[in-house]
Specification:
This protein has a single domain, classed as Gcn5-related N-acetyltransferase (GNAT) (Aminopeptidase). The chain is about 30% helix and about 30% strand. A 7-stranded mixed β-sheet has the order 1-2-3-4-5-7-6. Helix 4 packs across helix 5.
Length: about 160
């Protein structure tokens, strides 16, 4: 006699990844809404949620490096990064609280790291253990502490000059 799993198969909707520059105009409002939900759900996310002008602000390479994950055309996560001489810096990583734990942030980080040569850096609140765990799984390591007590993390390999 064999056993069968009687649980219904749960099928997650397909996630799509987009470069920020390709979806900025149509998704700016929904990105601001997503940012607000993430801010409200986390006590360690930041001092305040980003507004439309933060998403629109020009930074070197931002429109090409930054990624937005969507499900059914709606943003469920994003990573905002800009180019630096040594590689890139991540300014923001967010996943809709209703989609946390589904691998969205891991997928965004893996995609960014795979296509960004050099060192990728970010700053994280030391009390944000879920984010620190995510970054460790993605290959980030502690490199220091900011004057404000935040942790500096980095992944990747130095560029050869």
């Amino acid at each position: 006699m064999h056993s069968t799993d009687r649980r219904a198969a749960v099928r997650r909707p397909a996630q799509e990844l987009h470069r920020l520059g390709d979806v900025m105009d149509e998704l700016r409002g929904p990105l601001v809404d997503l940012e607000q939900r993430v801010y409200e759900a986390s006590s360690h996310y930041d001092t305040g949620p980003w507004q439309a002008e933060n998403f629109a602000r020009h930074l070197p390479g931002k429109r090409e490096l930054s990624l937005v994950a969507t499900v059914h055309g709606k943003p469920v996560g994003f990573v905002i990064a800009s180019r630096r001489p040594e590689g890139a810096h991540i300014h923001r990583v967010a996943t809709d609280p209703r989609h946390q734990g589904t691998g969205i942030a891991s997928r965004l980080l893996a995609h960014l790291l795979a296509r960004t040569p050099g060192i990728v850096t970010l700053i994280c609140d030391p009390r944000n253990q879920p984010a620190l765990d995510l970054y460790a799984r993605a290959g980030f390591r502690l490199t220091g502490t900011t004057p404000e007590g935040k942790l500096s993390l980095a992944a990747g390999t130095p560029l050869h000059r």
